[in-house]
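Entry type: protein chain
Record version: 2
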Amino acid sequence: MKAALVTGATRGAGRAIAVALAMAGWRTYALGRDRAVLDEMRAGCGVQPLAMDLTDRDDLRVIAGDMRLDALIHAPLRWPQEGRFVDLREADIDMALEVNLSATLHLTHAILPSMIAARSGHIVLISPGVSPDRSLVRATVGSAVAAFADGLRSEFASSGVTVQTLDPGMPPFEGMAQSLVKSLGGRD
């Protein structure tokens, strides 16, 4: 059975992807902070809940060390209440960067060696694209995630690991999730 870890799995695009993978027969580890939603998802579609904060690097290292994954899907997408950039608090900016960028880099860094050793795997980064209607923080993170994906593709081109970015667009996310699952392949 193929295995995937989905971050941001309790809301939005992450939740749609986690459910779609589980319903397609993947062993799906759903990582999120909302234990009640994760328990609901376990009962409804059989995900393996991981109730934790994505920014807790010690916890991430522990789970990453034990997992052998076919796919790692980053979909945290937690943003400050938008306004003008100058109106954001320092904590808002730090949270957006830590959750949507830094945690993505650290978790990928922890999981990637096992994928390279297996000469297979998929890394999917769900991130807002860069467009004029996005906030400055979202556009900045979107650009950084795109550059990270480009760098991974270049550095590990012959490793057997694929890297892609997806802009989830607007809800509902189920269609995007189904397309992603189809592109990742079916059951083993």
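Comment: Helices lie at 12-23, 35-45, 57-66, 90-118, 136-155, 174-184.
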